[in-house]
Amino acid sequence: MNAPEEKAGYGSFLTGALNLALPISAIREVQPLRDLITLPCKAKGLLGGLNLRGVVVPVIDLCQMLDLSVGTSAADSIVVVAAHGQLIGLSANRVNELFYVHITEINPIHFESGGAHFFTGSVTCPNSGILLNVLEPQGLMNLPGLPSAKDPEPQRLQGLGAAHSLNASQTLQGQSYMLLQSGQISYAINPTQVESTLANPEITSSSLCAGHFMGELQYRGQFIPAVNLNLACGFRSDGDTRSLREACVVRLKEGAVAFMVDRVVDMVNLDPANFAPLSNDNSAALALVDQVMPNSLLGDAYVKKHHCTGVTHFVLNGQLIQSNTALNELASLLAKRKVDNQSHSDHLSKSRGEYVQESRFLTFWVQDELATPIESILKVIPYNTALDILPGEGVLLGYVYDQGENMPVYSLSHLLTGRRQGLGSHSSILIVQCQQGKVGFAVRALKTIESARWKNSIPVLGAKRSEPGNFGQTSHPHVEIGTREDKRMLRVLDLHAIGVGLPGRQTPAASASLDVLDLLPELLDQHL
């Protein structure tokens, strides 16, 4: 009978020029490095104290402590280390990933002098191929002159019986899982799928925001999509995303994605043989999960202590995440964009666009604010509720008689969303000249006339291409509109191109019609 395979789990991170690894069991959590407390003690490399839920944890810069200046850069994270009832924080420029290796792959190192040492060996990360220096947690706690804090939750170390230090490897029983909480839904994910976790990342809105896509956040010099995990999985959401304060970053083939959750709860070791498959109905409806983990596996005391909701954890499937088309398209789109010294709003609009000669656009409301080139509009007339309305809920509203001409008027809302929108005294009809004659488009309200000097093309992702209003297009043109205080990216509609595909009436050219620039100011005054 073969002996059970012995593996050790590690988390890797970068501090200055040092590529480091710690046993997973010793990594309590990762926090952003900000607003450290000044401590009444002096020690080399001591940056200050982290307020960790009422406990002051000393934070150390190993590069400063070791007088290593080559390759250093500003740290932005703190790795909280726990060992033998003590806590200490290590500053990090980047937190990389969790991984497992066979204990024979760990290369120990020995010192001639006695005493405690915090550097105990090296190991090669199987995913990145980077050679890492392995730290001994207890050696860190024993560094002379450096303070440490008492661990208020020493029992949390017991949840990772699968994680090992270099001096105390154990046989893996089951598998490690990271537990996540998002609203009323609990998740479990294999930590080897997780590249990093981020606390309170700043999310910036994007013109692509819709559905599960919440916006963009900066991560390792790039913008990555922030995704509402509940919506991405197929669960309903109450629409309030203020509680989604932690990000679980997963690396896909096309780039990284940040799944936004309320909190990263804990790391536990469980036997996946005790998980249950989803029912056929649920597996068809839920996109990224394929199993459920009964909370009974955690024990009543654990569930109560960590406020686990429901009766199960949904197990996220790494292969389903990796193969998800919409997530990969989002990741690919943002992976090409680098963070630089421009403001994020400038970066958002200009990273893939180009300058154009300043041109004027009419903006108006349908479901959202949209724009169309002013020169494409033949004229604008007020919407008349006495319009010869056709029965039904089709795209053709009816016909309007204007200056001796009878022309069809279409619901722009219906063309874009598949249903008519309420129109009233503030609404207008935009008239364009097509080959088959004049065509009118009814819009909810006009907004403004503004200039634009920047244009961009925003991809239409996955199945959204077949939705009403996307017309099977793979991308939509956008322009940057407004002043610095009111700058925004708006989708540009080519009403002439849309009108060409609609049934119209052959009418003579309207050479005597009012110029749109003469008429619009009066309409805007009436309607805004």
TrEMBL record:
Pfam families per the UniProt record, alphabetical: CheW
Cross-referenced InterPro entries: CheW (IPR039315), CheW-like_dom_sf (IPR036061), CheW-lke_dom (IPR002545)
Annotated organism of origin: Limnobacter litoralis
Protein name: CheW-like domain-containing protein
The organism's place on the tree of life at top rank: Bacteria
Domain CheW-like per the UniProt entry, residue ranges: 7-146, 174-327
Secretion signal, residue range per the UniProt entry: none
Upper classification of the organism: Bacteria, Pseudomonadati, Pseudomonadota, Betaproteobacteria, Burkholderiales
